[in-house]
Amino acid sequence: MNLNLAVTYAEVPGFPAGSAVASYVAVVTGAAAGNTTPVVQTSPAASVPASFVFPLTVADTYTYSISGQDASGNTFGTPVTGSFAITAPATVSLNLPAAVVPSQS
């Protein structure tokens, strides 16, 4: 199971001259007991990531936060936040034997 966070960007005015985004940081945190350690992904600003993909192995409700930061790790503006539920599949597919072809050697 993966959580895919597709990101769009917007020009935001009003920051002091010389301000520059050095990186984009995405953080995902689960809510269930034992699944609350934040998972962090950082991407250099030069790559302007279209998405962040988090491989998640636990069905849970996750919160996410994405922000732009300067080289010192200071966040510009307010991070974009939200939540998303990853549900466990009701069924799975298994690769099982379907046929046998005997031969003599």
Can you give a write-up of this model?
The structure is a single chain. The chain is mainly beta and 105 residues long. The chain is built from no helices and 6 strands. The protein has strands at residues 2-6, 23-30, 39-44, 51-55, 60-69, 75-86. A 4-stranded antiparallel beta sheet has the order 3-2-5-6, with no helix packed on it. It has a two-stranded antiparallel ribbon with strand order 1-4.
In short:
With 105 residues, this protein is mostly beta strands.
List the helices and strands and how they pair.
Elements: E1 2-6, E2 23-30, E3 39-44, E4 51-55, E5 60-69, E6 75-86
Antiparallel strand pairs: 1-4, 2-3, 2-5, 5-6
Key attributes of the depicted protein:
single chain, 105 residues, mainly beta, 4-stranded antiparallel β-sheet, two-stranded antiparallel sheet
Strand adjacency order, main sheet: 3-2-5-6
Decide which structural class fits the backbone: mainly beta
Task: Estimate the helix proportion, in percent.
Answer: under 10%
The pLDDT mean sits at: 91
Strand content: 35-45%
Number of helices: 0
Strand count, sense and barrel status of the largest sheet are: 4 strands, antiparallel
For the record, what CATH class applies? Mainly Beta
Shape: elongated
Radius of gyration: 21 Å
The CATH topology comes to: Immunoglobulin-like
Give the uncertain stretches in residue-range form: none
The N- and C-terminal alpha carbons lie at a distance of 44 Å
Oligomer designation: single chain
**Annotated CATH architecture:** Sandwich
Number of E strands: 6
What is the string of SSEs from the N terminus onward?
EEEEEE
Tally of distinct domains: 1
